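2024-03-11 09:14:02 INFO worker-7 job=invfold-0412 stage=load source=structure_tokens
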């Protein structure tokens, strides 16, 4: 299930079995590195939670992953609270998952992600030397575009260098839009909140660092439109299918006003194709025995 709430700092946290080997800067080796497929997304910004901006990152990341045969496992939204961001990133680093974090890496007072990443890791921040080169090059570009002289000691230009202050040991993510880089620590990757920058940077990370994961495990879904039944009444059947077919997940998507099917449940199974092929007939048999009225079957 997609996770869309941010727990209170210090409260109950999403926990999984910790990997046995550590990665850079104390981060755990990811599921991806060990052959798994858990991928997370953190979206930072008050503007999303207040409704001033609509999140475009999650649907795009789902699209970018799907094009490579991958799936998003979880997502979290968090506002511009340093304590909450730190707690969220601490979970991300500890999870061992491949995680993308979007937003909050600029140099304005409401940008806290870089500092919070350092706090979550327990490491100091420092100006990355190559990031400094790239930021200065960008400032020179701007000066040329404006017909002015680049002044490296101008307070505004000095302040902009903060955009290259990252946790010690961070690796750079190139930004094809304006040269200002993002950064990675272990398998957590930080990009800006601007889609025009973030999306090609996420693609670069996937294509340069994780091509061995692409289409590693084929994935299939089979479902049937069910009329005249309640989810609660079908829950024992769903539970039985998951017990009888380990590795398969049952999904139930009810609708009350679908333009084609009206009130119905899209009920199905998903997982590796051979597991789905074994589980789906049992699901249909169970629905038939229940007396449910069945509509079209869907394969994805």
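2024-03-11 09:14:09 INFO worker-7 stage=emit residues=300
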């Amino acid at each position: 299930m997609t996770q869309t709430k941010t727990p209170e700092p210090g409260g109950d946290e999403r926990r999984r079995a910790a990997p046995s080997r550590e990665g850079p800067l104390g981060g755990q080796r990811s599921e991806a590195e060990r052959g798994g497929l858990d991928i997370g997304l953190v979206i930072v910004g008050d503007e999303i939670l207040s409704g001033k901006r609509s999140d475009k990152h999650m649907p795009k990341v789902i699209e970018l992953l799907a094009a490579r045969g991958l799936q998003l496992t979880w997502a979290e939204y968090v506002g511009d609270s340093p304590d909450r961001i730190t707690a969220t990133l601490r979970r991300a680093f500890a999870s061992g998952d491949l995680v993308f974090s979007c937003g909050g890496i600029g140099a304005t007072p409401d940008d806290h992600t870089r500092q919070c990443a350092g706090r979550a890791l327990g490491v100091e921040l420092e100006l990355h030397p190559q990031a400094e080169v790239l930021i200065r090059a960008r400032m020179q570009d701007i000066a040329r575009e404006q017909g002015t002289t680049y002044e490296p000691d101008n307070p505004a230009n000095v302040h902009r260098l903060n955009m290259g202050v990252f946790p010690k040991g961070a690796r750079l993510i190139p930004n094809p839009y304006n040269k200002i880089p993002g950064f990675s620590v272990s398998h957590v990757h930080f990009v800006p909140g601007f889609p025009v920058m973030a999306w090609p940077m996420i693609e670069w990370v996937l294509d340069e660092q994780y091509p061995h994961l692409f289409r590693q495990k084929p994935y299939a879904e089979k479902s049937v439109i069910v009329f005249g039944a309640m989810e609660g009444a079908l829950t024992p059947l769903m539970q039985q299918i998951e017990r009888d077919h380990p590795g398969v997940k049952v999904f139930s998507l009810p609708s009350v006003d679908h333009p084609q099917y009206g009130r119905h449940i899209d009920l199905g199974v998903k997982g590796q194709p051979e597991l789905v092929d074994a589980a789906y007939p049992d699901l249909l048999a169970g629905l038939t025995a229940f007396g449910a009225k069945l509509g079209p079957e869907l394969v994805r």
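2024-03-11 09:14:09 INFO worker-7 stage=report msg="The chain is about 35% helix and 25% strand."
2024-03-11 09:14:10 INFO worker-7 job finished
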